[in-house]
Amino acid sequence: MAVDSDRSAGICGSGQGIIEYSSDTGINFSNIFFPTGSAGTQSGLIAGKAIYGLNSEINGIAITKNAEQITEEVSALTDGISEFLKSIGLNVLSGLMTIILARNTEHLRKRR
User: Residue 72 to residues 1, 24, 43, 94: CA-CA distances in angstroms?
Assistant: First the structure.
């Protein structure tokens, strides 16, 4: 699944935005919960977590598809983001993103 550069930058940058907000306000987020429909926000937060060192747990709640479908879409988008970043010289540790994705997948399965 291809991810264009503007979309990648926007969704990956959300991790940095959360860190900056936390720094500015003194409010830290141990968990971030949000509805997952198209998987774009979740994959962006996972990538942002890996890139910027976000310490929050990312908890997408599937609202339009089952956990397996969302997991596949998040994985494909996250891989696309990683490939895009590699193409511009940023080597994101895909292993870290895989661990985060696995943790999120387990969380989604527990909710069934």
Answer: 11, 35, 11, 16
Range in 2-6, 29-33, 35-39 the model is least confident about: 2-6
Contacts of 19 (CB under 8 A, 6+ apart): 52, 53, 54
- Per the structure, the count of domains in the chain is 1
Give the residue among 42, 85, 82 at the shortest CA–CA distance from 61.
42
The tokens describing 81, both together, are 């983001």
CATH code, domain carrying 46: 3.40.50.1100
Distance in angstroms (rounded) separating the CA atoms of residues 52 and 43: 14
Indicate the DSSP class of residue 111: T
